[in-house]
Design goal:
Elements: H1 3-33, H2 36-50, E1 56-60, H3 62-77, E2 82-86, H4 87-90, E3 103-107, H5 114-124, E4 133-138, E5 151-154, H6 170-189, H7 194-199
Helix pairs in contact: 1-6, 3-6
Domain SIS: 44-192
GO molecular function, one term: carbohydrate derivative binding
Organism: Coemansia guatemalensis
């Protein structure tokens, strides 16, 4: 490639970052105008965080599950009990890791993913005796998944980075940013400090 081509490619990356940042800024502005929906989710999250035996179970499939794994890892590292559970594995025996009083955070941008809706129905079935909270994160509370949840965290975006292929890009970045914000909020609320952080990081540069 020529120097000109490389410069254009680098500027394209910068433009993509602008789009991601703009989407997050626009979402923050919408939240400030109406916090009711997020308040419902936070009320549940605080209730579970304050319960000594309860934990957060972050679930999803595909790219959403990868976001969920990062969220669970961040929450755990800053003092909040959390595990990541792939929805497919949950439906094949691993749902047993979910205990009464836990909060399941279900990540699905479309809200129609078959495994996610099926898992939500399993958790909602009184015969299965899963007395848990269910919070969804995705595009629409009016989706099949959203209708099964106790609360919903909106992650809707106007577009992804590519107009050709709708691969999760801006939406997954927003979902991750919202998750990290919640993890940080819980950390600050619990007075989790530097010495606690070091105990959770006995190795690596962060633990120094």
């Amino acid at each position: 490639m020529t120097a000109d081509d490389l410069d254009k490619a680098a500027r394209s990356i910068a433009s993509s970052l602008d789009l991601v940042g703009l989407a997050i800024k626009q979402h923050a502005d919408r939240l400030r105008q109406d916090t009711q929906e997020l308040q419902r989710a936070l009320d549940i999250i605080f209730t579970v965080a304050d319960a000594p035996r309860s934990k957060f179970v972050i679930t999803g499939v595909g790219k959403s599950f990868l976001v969920g794994k990062k969220l669970a890892a961040t929450m755990t590292s800053v003092g909040t009990r959390a595990v990541a559970l792939h929805a497919t594995e949950a439906l094949h025996g691993d749902v047993g890791i979910i205990d009464s009083g836990d909060c399941v955070i279900a990540l699905s941008y479309s809200g129609v993913t078959e495994e996610m809706v099926k898992l939500a129905k399993v958790l909602r079935d009184p015969q299965n005796r899963h007395d848990v909270w269910l919070i969804g994160m995705g595009r629409s509370v009016n989706s099949p998944l959203g209708e099964l949840c106790d609360a919903w965290i909106d992650c809707s975006v106007e577009t992804e980075l590519s107009s050709v292929v709708c691969a999760p890009t801006i939406s997954s970045s927003l979902m991750l940013a919202l998750g990290d914000s919640i993890a940080t909020l819980l950390m600050n609320r619990s007075k989790f400090g530097p010495s606690d952080f070091v105990r959770n990081h006995p190795s690596g540069n962060l633990g120094k």
